[in-house]
Design brief:
By secondary structure, the protein is α/β, with parallel strands linked by helices. It is built from 10 helices and 14 strands. It is globular.
């Protein structure tokens, strides 16, 4: 393990799912106390997640992350102090609709997510085709500031952030293969909560966590980056970090690329490491 001991002003960046969060998708009491200790020592930290701001809000609500948050794998950065988003490589309306056409199937309907100039969320969709989509739409309908609109109303004066879909595993895997053939798009996919279903999330290929984290480092004047992650969408962070740590549960190639492997995400692995790394006192 090689650690830059000369760094005095690091930026610490956490992935959420399978990294900082436990298996209940929560910040444990131990982790919350550790984050407060980082605050007490003036150590800068934030999150960089594949989740949207909508999806992340419930799981981080127990703690105030005061620095800008990186969402949708770097497409969006939210500044909580200024209450505004900045955007990095959004999709055009034509690119979004082309992706919808590629992904759609008789069993699944893509959802297109966008923000208008006032940061109001618009989600466009076609005819729902499975129960997972119906459940998702019901949850979205209960969120403040979200407009659910027919796909035909997609228009060009919006920031199109990503296209998501949930459906039978074979359908999603086929969509993933088609997206992989598009040079301007990148897809991430995983197991859904529904048995034999998967989710897929698609955004512009030029957007990634690493570039967003590097931009934030420069903005804050940090002298190093320490990051934590477990999966494919964390690779770009690992590539630009001075130190990168993978929890025990991370994918094999992420662990191979890490500075060191730390404890399991459901055993407060990140928080326990932070307490030792920064000699946090309580």
């Amino acid at each position: 393990m090689i650690i830059n001991l000369r760094a005095t002003n690091p930026l610490v960046v956490f992935d959420l799912d399978q990294t900082l969060l436990n298996k209940q998708s929560q910040l444990s009491a131990y982790t919350l106390a550790t984050l407060r200790a980082l605050d007490s020592q003036g150590i800068q930290y934030t999150i960089a997640t594949g989740r949207s701001d909508l999806s992340a809000a419930p799981v981080i609500k127990e703690h105030t992350f005061s620095l800008p948050h990186i969402y949708t794998n770097g497409v969006l950065t939210w500044c909580p102090n200024e209450k505004r988003f900045s955007f990095n490589h959004c999709l055009s309306v034509d690119e979004s609709l082309a992706a919808v056409e590629i992904m759609a199937s008789p069993q699944s309907t893509p959802f297109v997510s966008a923000l208008d100039k006032d940061a109001r969320r618009c989600i466009f969709h076609g005819i729902l085709k499975n129960k997972a989509e119906q459940s998702l739409l019901q949850r979205l309908s209960q969120k403040d500031g979200v407009s659910l609109l027919p796909i035909e109303q997609c228009k060009g004066d919006l920031h199109f952030t990503n296209i998501s879909m949930v459906g039978p595993s074979d359908v999603v895997k086929e969509a993933n293969g088609k997206i992989s053939a598009q040079a301007n798009l990148v897809a991430y996919s995983g197991q859904a909560l529904v048995a034999d279903y998967r989710w897929i999330d698609v955004h512009h290929a030029a957007a990634n966590k690493g570039s967003a984290v590097l931009a934030l480092k420069n903005q804050l004047g940090a002298d190093s980056i320490i990051c934590f992650g477990d999966s494919d969408n964390d690779t770009s962070m690992f590539e630009i970090a001075d130190e990168c740590y993978a929890p025990e549960n991370a994918k094999a190639h992420i662990k191979a690329a890490s500075t060191a492997i730390i404890g399991h995400h459901d055993e407060d692995g990140v928080a326990k490491f932070l307490r030792k790394r920064f000699s946090l006192s309580f």
